[in-house]
Amino acid sequence: MKKIISTLAVFLLVGILLTGCGGNQEASNKDGQITLEFFQYKQEAVGTFDHLIAEFEKENPNIKIEQNNVPEADTVLRSRLAKNDIPAIMTVNGGAIYRELASSGIYADFTNDPILEDVQEAYIKMIRELHGDTDTSYGIPYTANAVPIIYNKDKFKELGLEIPKTWNQLIATAEKIKEAGETPFYLTFREAWTTLPSWNALASNLAGIDFVKAKAEGEATFKEGYHEVAKRIYSLLEYGHSDNFGNGYNQGNIAFANGKSVMYLQGIWALGQIKQANPDINLGVFAYPAVNDASQNKLVSGVDTVLTMSAKLKGEEAKAAKKFIHFLLEKESTKYYIEQQKLFSTLKGVYQQDPILASLQEYFETGRLVPFSDHYYPAGLQMANLIQEFLLKGDVDAFLEKLDNEWDKVQARQ
User: Fold this and answer.
1) Which of 31, 67, 172, 307 is least surrounded by CB atoms within 10 angstroms?
2) Burial letters for 63-91: b for 16+ Cβ neighbours within 10 Å, e otherwise?
3) pLDDT at 122
4) Dihedral sign, CA of 136, 138, 140, 141?
């Protein structure tokens, strides 16, 4: 993948030289009116960004921001990169896609942008470590997410349940729910990516991020380090509904909202859609109890969205793009965004006030946070599909051996 990206970067450079120093078709400057494309990947955030764009355009009538949200945004962005067609302003998930493209030359360098002084150092470090250059920022962390367990407070009260603090307590709670004739978890494994919230909660707590570094250096194997991770995620199938692989994310959000299960294994990004489906549902969240020592349990949290812009932008277009990014990072803009999207801000002193998320605040205050493990796996390792295949087959040893082999194949190609 690095070779492919490097080749694409060369084509990109050639394109820049051929087209001069001006912007591309995704930015225009006519009669003092600057129009910029804002390519953002979150379908659920379209309305929120529409509001913020309107506020920005009121303050800056000479700048027009055109939001572009498409299905399969990561795939579309890769395709556009190959055609040297780079959006002016972008939101990018702070995971594999950011890591893949950050060193390709398409993103502007924000390393010396003073706005970074307002961002928590932990999140700056996370995205820098992703692309392996700990001194350079090719974007600004905007929001952070988290992977707790979402639960129906009314059903917990009705069944006399307490919040589980350890893995054994979680399984015991699931057993009680099952005995009461309810469904503990609504699983949505028809879409492979929905296996990742649980996988990351278990892997990051049980094996840790140090495993990934050791694996990359040939000093660890999945077969030795991930056996308990695989066993535990497979055990969740026993507590799902009648067709764990029959429904996807959207169906799961609606089903949980309508009381089809007591708990839901998704990140906080699902809260908005759940409340939209049932505004009266009484929701709560608790940190995924992945281990059996409650004091060692950590909340999985990572950069949900990175704000960045095209390195091709120059002059007034570059200034206008950066002005919009800075506007989104103003405290009032950020507060509005995280309230609407049920996320956490990366800015110092800006906190999520939603009572649903109040129980997670202690993890941020004490630093009991751990990144998403899959963000650090090699680009090209189709982990979600491999997990989905394993959950269908159930052979732990074969699965872990396949992970080691697939990792090695990907590494050999890079």
Assistant:
1) 31
2) bebeebbeeebbeebbeebeebebbbbbb
3) 82
4) negative
